[in-house]
């Protein structure tokens, strides 16, 4: 893959809450997809470097109305639930799972069905700007491996998890692992198969150990998966303290919180991704931070199934790693930019309160809201840090995962007024109003993999 130099204005949030505007910068991307240099406008080598890149045919210039954003990192997606997007959100979580979700996920025993759905899912998420995705698949080996293969072919950076769930008292007979030993054996084989897709230390797609959540797994399986994580070095993902029902179930079974139970089984590890975590205590947050784990904050699905709001500000103030998740299909939007908006709204409603019958000083939680820059950091660099990846910002050594945004695209809801809007205003307007139509190009690892421009390359056709 040939190196390139991108010229134009870029926005990123390299640290929580800190927006940097790189006006007319040059971003130099090497053949391995990593950024080697960011040359600021006005620096001594800027004009000469731009001229050299143009002469060598390596210069990519952003057009009028175009800016660059880092690619979006979605920490929590249920891939098989893609056909269910926007459906059946009117019942409690435990009913939703048994009546709607488990029957749908059971259909992925049909690999042809799985490939059709997964190909549509991955292309749709890439078009929405998701350059890194963390997926729950199903219990099915072949279908889960097909998802990993599709992610690599489509050029999306991904962590794919074959789901483990073996408790006969909590899982339906038509959709569960036969027993803990079978689940463990298949998880081990799945890890080996995914790693064989793209061997080497810099693979685009990775396996991730995925106990669905504590209620669906026996003690034997949870302990075995913890040992497997230590043996293989794989990341772990699961649900944590998502709803009143789930929290109460775990406490009645173990007498401890989800976080404490997961830690006891060796599953709360460096870069473990805990989806939701709405009902965590201060002690849980401290434990999550101490173990180096992270929370996937899913504000939209929490509104439907948690009936509670994750204490985001408290987690951030305690230096817990946090990113955003769409939680498809518990969340009905595939856009992580929507996730930013939902996180902003959740924080504001938590601070302001929702019961108008209470006095203002008793209605909400003080200092709970976040800024637009913080929300975007959660969707980019924050998500990258949660996974231990150098993505989500434009800096030397980071992977060039990026979105070319056209604020003047047909159908755009982003309106920019040059006489009224500073660059910081344009950034906020993009985060709050941009959609799929505005995403002209999507780059992952320096390769164009999607966007409305129509000239996207496919990772499968690129030799590394």
Structure description:
Its cofactor is Zn(2+). Belongs to the metallo-dependent hydrolases superfamily. ATZ/TRZ family. Residues 67-447 form the Amidohydrolase-related domain. It catalyses: guanine + H2O + H(+) = xanthine + NH4(+). One of its GO terms (molecular function) is zinc ion binding. It is a single chain. The chain has 464 residues and is of the alpha/beta class. It folds into two domains: 4-69 and 393-461, Roll (Urease, subunit C, domain 1); 72-387, TIM Barrel (Alpha-Beta Barrel). 37% of the residues lie in helices and 21% in strands. It contains 15 helices and 17 strands. Strands 6, 7, 8, 9, 10, 11, 12, 13 and 14 form a nine-stranded parallel beta sheet that branches. Helix 4 (141-154) links the parallel strand 7 (130-136) and strand 8. Helix 4 packs parallel to helix 5 (180-197) and helix 12 crosses helix 13. The longest helix is centred in the middle third of the chain and has 18 residues, at 180-197. It is globular and about 65 Å long. It starts with a strand and ends in a 14-residue tail after the last strand.
The CATH architecture category of the largest domain equals Alpha-Beta Barrel
So, the CATH homologous superfamily of the largest domain? Metal-dependent hydrolases
Low-confidence stretches: 455-464
Distance between the termini: 7 Å
Give the tally of structural domains. 2
Structural class: alpha/beta
What's the mean pLDDT score? 94
Q: Roughly what fraction of the amino acids lie in strands?
A: 15-25%
- Determine the number of helices (DSSP H or I, runs of at least 4 residues): 15
Q: Identify the overall geometry.
A: globular
CATH class of the largest domain: Alpha Beta
At the fold tier of CATH, the topology name of the largest domain is TIM Barrel
Query: How many E strands?
Result: 17
Radius of gyration: 22 Å
User: What summary fits the major beta sheet?
Assistant: 9 strands, parallel
Helix content: 25-40%
């Amino acid at each position: 893959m040939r190196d390139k130099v991108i010229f134009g204005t870029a926005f990123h949030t390299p640290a929580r809450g800190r927006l940097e505007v790189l006006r007319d910068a040059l971003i130099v991307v090497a053949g391995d997809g990593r950024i080697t240099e960011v040359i600021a406008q006005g620096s001594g080598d800027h004009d000469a470097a731009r001229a050299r890149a143009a002469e060598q045919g390596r210069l990519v210039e952003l057009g009028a109305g175009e800016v660059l954003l880092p690619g979006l990192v979605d920490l929590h997606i249920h891939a098989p639930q893609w056909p269910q997007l926007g459906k059946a959100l009117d019942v409690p979580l435990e009913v939703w799972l048994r009546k709607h979700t488990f029957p749908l996920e059971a259909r992925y025993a049909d690999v042809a069905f799985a490939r059709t759905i997964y190909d549509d899912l991955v292309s749709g998420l890439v078009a929405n700007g998701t350059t890194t995705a963390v997926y729950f698949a199903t219990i099915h080996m072949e279908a889960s491996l097909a998802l990993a293969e599709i992610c690599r072919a489509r050029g999306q950076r991904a962590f794919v998890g074959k789901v483990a769930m073996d408790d006969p008292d909590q899982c339906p007979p038509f959709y569960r692992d036969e027993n803990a030993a079978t689940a463990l054996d298949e998880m081990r084989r799945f890890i080996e198969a995914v790693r064989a897709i793209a061997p080497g230390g810099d693979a685009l797609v990775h396996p991730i150990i995925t106990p669905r959540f504590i209620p669906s797994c026996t003690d034997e399986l949870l302990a075995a998966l913890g040992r497997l994580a230590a043996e293989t070095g794989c990341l772990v993902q699961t649900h944590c303290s998502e709803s009143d029902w789930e929290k109460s179930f775990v406490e009645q079974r173990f007498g401890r919180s989800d976080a404490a139970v997961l830690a006891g089984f060796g599953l709360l590890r460096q870069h473990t991704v805990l989806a939701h975590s709405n009902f965590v205590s201060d002690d849980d947050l401290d434990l999550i931070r101490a173990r180096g784990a992270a929370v996937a904050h899913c504000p939209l699905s929490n509104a439907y199934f948690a009936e509670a709001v994750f204490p985001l500000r408290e987690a951030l103030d305690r230096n817990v790693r946090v990113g955003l998740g769409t939680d498809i299909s518990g969340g009905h939007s595939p856009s992580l930019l929507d996730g930013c908006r939902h996180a902003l709204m959740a924080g504001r409603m938590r601070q302001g309160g929702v019961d108008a019958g209470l006095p203002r000083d008793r209605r909400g939680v003080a200092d709970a809201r976040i800024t637009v820059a913080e929300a975007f950091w959660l969707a980019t660099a924050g998500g990258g840090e949660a996974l231990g990846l150098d993505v989500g910002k434009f800096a030397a050594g980071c992977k060039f995962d990026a979105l070319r945004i056209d604020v003047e695209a047909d159908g755009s809801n982003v309106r920019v007024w040059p006489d009224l809007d500073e660059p910081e205003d344009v950034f906020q307007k993009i985060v709050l109003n941009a959609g799929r139509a505005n995403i002209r190009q999507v780059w992952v690892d320096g390769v164009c993999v999607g966007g409305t421009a129509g000239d996207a390359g496919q990772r499968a056709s690129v030799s590394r």
